[in-house]
Amino acid sequence: MVVVRTTPPRPVDVTAVFPELAPSARPAVRLHPRPGAPSAADSSVGGPLLWPADEPWPHCEAAHLHLDSGFRRPPAEVRLDRRIMARRHADHGGPAMTPEEQTLRERCATMMEERFGADLPEPADCPVPLLPVAQLYLRDVPLLRPPAGADVLQVLWCPYDHEPDCKPSTALFWRSAAEVADILATPPEPYEVNDDGYVPEPCTLAPEAITEYPNSLDLSPRERSMVEDRSRWRAAGADPDSSHADSPRGFYDIHLAEAPGWKVGGWPPWGRTDPCPRYCAVCDARMVPLLTVASFEWDGGEGHSWAPHEDREAAVAAAAVGYCCGQRPSQPTKVAVGSTDNLQIYVCPTSPDHPHTDLIQ
To answer: What is 173-208 written as a DSSP string?
Structure first.
């Protein structure tokens, strides 16, 4: 079954009100991840990768920040707890744990004990296997700019925070799907994770091409004044809603500029900091956004105007009554980076072989 997600039309046509912003339009692809059972042949978030059986799995050997919580928590246990919470959310009168769930929990504990006994190593003491974050096929996301001959992008990260920005370190791999014969069946996993939010829930994707405009922080001073000028809105027959009567710029940023959620391309979602251009360490070219790893697909308040038509009812209900048991419809991947922010991956526009960089926003 083909899953479709459709972004509602924006409440105002940006170029009708501000034709000066037309040259700033950028293409983007909202990925719309939703929980599922993707295979290695699919584009996905947190799903299995098309990884050659004869290619070593990547590990992180850098120093890791580690907050000692007093217990070890493997990815399998994180996934199990999510499964339990989802079941209990759907069935409030159900048992705290089913026999199958109890068996799985005991299996997690046994696995940890067999591997490490009572003395688990600190994360800095051993290389840490990376976790799959996303796999994107060019056929699903034509906006990708792969090296010659490549048609699959694979993104992984280390599930620990790293200096100096307290974020997971990322790794990118491009490959040709046709060249992968035997797939690695059981990739290694880290024995624990620094944060539950660093374990993406397996999700299928419903890519959707959209057009974005820059956040007001990316506008020139003249353009920013233009967006703040209420008379410009009225002259075009548009008017921000009453909640933004004194701040049309806020209306522009929330409803008209860059889309929230997981996406390829587009404009950066500034706000945590002022715009911070990234430059290639090899050629000094200004880098461009490749992938946004988002904590939320849309904002729980006014920003739920970005919720797809197909999720509208759930988004409105969640905005009205909240959520429980971690079952936010706007957080299908269960990923949380920073203070529920976004991790943006940037690449060099002149060569895909140049190293990427990333930034929390």
So the answer is: EEE-GGG--SBPSS----S--S-GGGSPPPEE---E
Candidates 281, 289, 301, 282; CA nearest to 265 is 289
Q: Global pTM?
A: 0.90
3-class state of residue 250 by DSSP: helix
Structure tokens at 143: 């906006």
Amino acid found at 123: P
HSE at residue 132, side-chain half, CA atoms within 13 A, is 24
User: What structural domains and CATH numbers belong to the chain?
Assistant: 14-72+120-360 (2.30.320.10)
What pLDDT, on a 0 to 100 scale, did the predictor assign at position 112? 64
Q: List per-block mean pLDDT (blocks of 10 residues) for the chain, which spans 361 residues.
A: 86 93 98 97 98 97 65 79 81 78 76 61 72 98 94 96 85 97 94 88 97 96 93 80 71 93 95 87 96 91 83 75 66 90 95 93 84
Give the C-alpha distances (Å, rounded to integers) separating 170 from 83, 127, 132, 198, 339.
26, 15, 10, 11, 18
Give pairs for 147-151: CB < 8 Å, separation 24+: 147/174, 147/352, 147/353, 149/176, 150/174, 150/175, 150/176, 150/352, 151/176, 151/177, 151/178
Secondary structure of residue 135 in the 3-state scheme? strand
**Cα–Cα dist 328/322, whole Å:** 8
Residues 112, 74: contact at Cβ < 8 Å? yes
The predicted pLDDT at position 319 comes to 63
289: helix, strand or coil: strand
Residue found by looking up tokens 């490749």 in the block: 290
Best CA proximity match to 100, nearest among 115, 86, 84, 117: 84
Burial, 320: exposed, middle or buried (Cβ in 10 Å; 0-12, 13-18, 19+)?
exposed
User: Is 158 in contact with 149 (CB distance < 8 Å)?
Assistant: no
Which residues, other chains included, contact 69 with Cβ-Cβ below 8 Å and sequence gap of 6+? none
